[in-house]
Design brief:
The complex is a heterodimer of chains A (about 270) and B (about 300). With about 270 residues, chain A is an all-alpha fold. Chain A is about 70% helix and about 0% strand. Chain A contains 13 helices and no strands. Chain B contains 14 helices and no strands. The two termini of chain B are about 20 Å apart. The chains are: A mainly alpha (about 270), B mainly alpha (about 300). At the A-B interface, helix 1, helix 3, helix 4, helix 5 and helix 7 of A face helix 2, helix 4, helix 5, helix 6 and helix 7 of B.
């Protein structure tokens, strides 16, 4: 009774990854694999005209910038909610969680409207002298803020959960032992929430690496990211092999953070 | 739940004037601004679905043009949007019907089989939470266009298989967490009282698992309605496009408030399903040590 679904899930989970090489004239036996197209894809990263290099570098820049903003802003919000939000805690939590249930596309679509050339944001900025900023024409800031907007809830929740679990007595002990508010924060709260911070960073960066719709809606080819390369190749006729190679490269990039996250999750489950 | 550190500093207006930037206040402002920033754009997008004009950014008075009035471009009369809606809900319902039962059984299976296979299975389940969705989507696309090119065509079937394999980890992980906290005692008691193992599962274990199953149904459904990457990678002809795909392609061309209306329909469905899920979850787990909405959200 359990063997069949078990087997099917395995077949699906592993099968899809295994099939990556076998395209579009599939070589099903590993000893027949040829690395020609894969090499071709690789050279596009480092040989002139660098078709793939720029998006790759950009992806790293955007992902790092967006995760840093996510962390700082997310930590502040999580800290306030865990520590100080007494009466409205339930409401704040619901509001913090609600973006999860609003389609990502709709949220980005909403921003696309707001940032439009004749849109509300430009009208608001008019008195300050930035009235006709072309936010949607390949501005890195727009794409980075879009990424932050899209993924920050994933940062806030784990940090909130860990801060909420820190016992009051530990903080009191810190204060009793002569620590100021700030030093208690740096020496007690922050170290205790470190695992959650790392988990949060991993959980926001992983989807950002594969993201392509944010840039499709808020940017242009000037801001295209690694995910855009994959999406374009998949849509292009005969691009499957390249798409497959790119997917492999992306998998290698995200492998380490992924394994880290899985190991941490496992450790937490075992501790609980 | 932690109680706030009682501030001994003066509160109210006096305290504010003395130090307007003191931490709670600064953090409070940040939190409030964050919440506004995170939700206001969506609220505005919903409001603009009632715009009278063609613009989704310049308000031209309220109207139901894009909902029911316009004979071709309102979501009530636009055939393409209606097809997309049917496709979205069809896929979501079918995915729930397939993924939740299999996932539940699978969770029970992992729970009983200790050792290596169970660990591996668990690992795979967690993996699909963290893998960038494009990796899975494009891999499945390649699978269906090469190995299964002659058996399963791109379109509804491929989309369904893709969604099921992506979503099955929800029920597995949620049901398994619940199983771990229930422990084997109830089932053993039932069997001591003469139940067969099948009866024990059906009459003792499944009712105990009901909250977790409801939670999975709600989560899987909501996630399927919102899914874009997997569904668009595996869609075939135009009639297998979902609402999310319509939003995406319209957003890249010249969207009208009709798209806002379609997105609003999507949003209302997912929020309703989640709300019903939370209610059921609370009702079924009443009197047990499981909490409410926050628990549910963290799953």
């Amino acid at each position: 009774m359990f063997v069949l679904p078990f087997y099917v899930v395995f077949a699906v989970a592993f099968g899809s990854v295994d099939k990556v090489f076998r395209l579009p004239v599939p070589y099903y036996a590993p000893w027949w694999w040829s690395f020609g197209t894969f090499n071709q894809t690789l050279t596009k990263f480092y040989e002139y005209p660098h078709i793939y290099q720029d998006p790759l570098i950009r992806t790293f820049e955007y992902v790092i910038a967006a995760s840093v903003i996510c962390l700082v802003l997310g930590y502040a919000v999580a800290y306030y909610t865990a520590r100080y939000a007494t009466r409205y805690k339930g409401l704040i939590l619901i509001l913090l969680v609600s973006p999860f249930w609003i389609s990502y596309l709709m949220r980005i679509y909403a921003w696309q409207g707001l940032l439009d050339a004749g849109g509300p944001i430009n009208k608001l900025l008019q008195p300050v002298g930035f009235g006709d900023t072309r936010f949607l024409e390949g501005k890195p800031v727009t794409v980075i803020l879009g990424l932050v907007y899209g993924y920050i809830p994933f940062m806030i929740l784990p940090i909130y959960a860990s801060l909420d679990r820190i016992q009051e007595s530990l903080l009191e002990a810190g204060r009793d032992l002569g620590g100021s508010g700030a030093s208690t924060f740096w020496r007690v709260t922050l170290p205790l929430s470190r695992p959650a911070i790392l988990a949060g960073i991993v959980i926001v960066t992983l989807p950002m690496f594969g993201d392509y719709y944010t840039n499709d809606l808020l940017g242009t080819t000037k801001t295209s990211m690694f995910g855009n390369l994959i999406a374009q190749q998949r849509e292009a006729s005969g691009g499957s092999t390249q798409a497959a190679s790119l997917v492999l490269i992306l998998s290698v990039i995200v492998l380490l953070p992924m394994l880290y996250y899985l190991r941490e999750t496992k450790r937490q489950v075992e501790q609980a | 739940m932690s109680v706030a550190v009682a501030p001994s500093r003066p509160r109210g207006i006096k305290g504010y004037i003395r130090n307007p930037w003191r931490r709670p206040r600064f953090l409070q402002a940040t939190t409030i601004l964050y919440l506004l920033w995170s939700l206001l754009p969506v609220v505005l997008a919903i409001i603009f679905s009632f715009n009278a004009g063609r613009s989704r950014v310049v308000w031209q008075g309220p109207s139901l043009t894009w909902w029911i009035r316009d004979p071709t471009d309102s979501i009530l009369h636009d055939a393409a949007i209606k097809t997309a809606m049917v496709q979205t809900y069809k896929l979501s319902i079918l995915t729930v019907l397939i993924a939740v039962p299999i996932g539940t059984l699978f969770a029970i299976g992992i729970d009983r089989w200790h050792g290596r296979p169970a660990r591996t299975a668990n690992f795979v389940m967690l993996l699909s939470f963290v893998v960038p969705e494009i990796i899975l989507g494009v891999s499945l696309y390649i699978l269906f266009t090469s190995l299964f090119a002659n058996t399963i065509a791109l379109g509804t079937n491929a989309q369904l298989l893709g969604l099921v394999s992506y979503q099955i980890s929800y029920p597995v992980i949620i049901v398994r967490a619940r199983l771990l906290s229930i422990g084997p005692e109830y089932e053993e008691a039932a069997m001591d009282l003469g139940a067969t193992s099948g009866q024990a599962i059906r009459r003792v274990l499944l009712p105990l698992l009901a909250p977790a199953i409801f939670a999975s149904v709600a989560l899987v459904f909501a996630d399927c309605v919102d899914d874009f990457v997997t569904v668009s990678a595996l869609s075939g002809a135009a009639d297998s496009e979902t609402l999310a795909q319509k939003i995406y392609s319209a957003a890249r061309a010249s969207p009208t408030p009709e798209i806002n209306a379609a997105a609003t329909v999507m949003l209302v469905t997912t929020l309703l399903v989640i709300a019903v899920g939370v209610l059921f979850y609370k009702r079924f787990s009443r009197g047990q040590e499981f909490g409410g909405a926050t628990d549910f959200a963290q799953l």
